[in-house]
């Protein structure tokens, strides 16, 4: 899960979750103005209105951030049923002072200290209905006593809350990466999958623990995914498609109680991304090198793609190559490598690598297969890399010796780690595109 972003729009189901009803998509701030005008009175003290608005915003953002309904297969973010969510009335008038305060507060929300997810700030009127969260009429009494909005919220939610102010606003983008994830894939979302599986495994011990919390979908991850799928009656194919992705999210949110006041909490370190979500002009580092590697390869076979160097600098040449690629394949032409562009680059690379022109067939073994190799992998690609690593180790005593067995064993992993350290790559013991290329270059003395 990334850091929370306040969505520009929210989709509301005009009924109970399972009730056939219309979905409406409205600006997020307009939604808050509407439900606030339905839930609270404009004549209340301003501090009480502010406290209530922050509770309503936080509760709604928690629903969106945890994908509470979307993880259950629904195509909306919230309902307008007060049994489940807040009262949204299409077309209703909103109060002027509530509208003005919402414009000021809509991208502020409550969190527990040390946690990342917006607080599931439950509330009730405090007269007809009692709850463990904020009492709306009680907040009026506290405001009349002179308490500030933050103090009112502390009174109901505890002293360990904080207010996030001026959170970024962006698109309401589903968390599913858009393509099934399987063994050999590498991206940030796989790190998320591993974290979720390990936490779920504490409640479901038949899910084997994953010892490598990196971003490579290895055999251990596949085994854990299969076990999860069997427990929750999904096809046990070891592939994280859309249904498995959202079932993981649903169960993870459930065991951590992220949609409850008593949430275990999601810490910043748990959700911290190692790599940026988008790559653009001016960025540097290994993620840029990987994109450059694929585009440089494709440049040999797609005439209009400009040739680029693998420098780790997202420079003008790289941006030109991205723009050209996006234009050719019907993507948004913005020169930014986001989810859709990245998925398409990998897809086209794998297609080209699997169907090389006749004049390049002799080089087929040296072409990166499009999937990463990690511990316990087997096959000719592993044997090919082991042959090169053995050659390198014979001339460099700092590289542990390797035997050509076709099985990615711990000796192979140790040799890869050492070579990655020498080359300034992340020493994760996984052969991705950059490590694959580096092994070949070193073995050939290039």
Written description of the protein model:
By secondary structure, the protein is mostly helical. Helix content is 43%, strand content 6%. It contains 15 helices and nine strands. Helix 1 packs across helix 3, helix 2 (46-65) crosses helix 3 and helix 13 crosses helix 15 (433-443).
Number of discrete helical segments: 15
**Total beta-strand segments:** 9
Rg for CA atoms = 26 Å
Mean model confidence by pLDDT: 92
How is the main sheet built?
A: 3 strands, mixed
Helix content: 40-55%
Beta content comes to: 5-15%
State the shape.
Answer: elongated
Helix vs. strand class: mainly alpha
Detail the poorly predicted runs.
none
Q: Secondary-structure element sequence?
A: EEEHHEHEEEHHEEHHHHHHHHHH
Strand order of the largest sheet: 3-2-4
Distance between the termini: 41 Å
Q: Characteristics of this structure?
A:
3-stranded mixed sheet; two-stranded parallel sheet; 43% helix; 6% strand; 446 residues; 9 strands; mainly alpha
Secondary structure layout plus pairing:
Elements: E1 6-7, E2 9-13, E3 23-27, H1 28-39, H2 46-65, E4 78-79, H3 96-105, E5 109-112, E6 123-124, E7 134-135, H4 136-144, H5 149-157, E8 161-164, E9 169-170, H6 188-203, H7 219-231, H8 242-256, H9 268-271, H10 286-298, H11 316-328, H12 339-354, H13 380-395, H14 410-423, H15 433-443
Parallel strand pairs: 1-9, 2-4, 6-7
Antiparallel strand pairs: 2-3, 5-8
Helix pairs in contact: 1-3, 2-3, 2-4, 2-5, 6-8, 10-12, 13-15
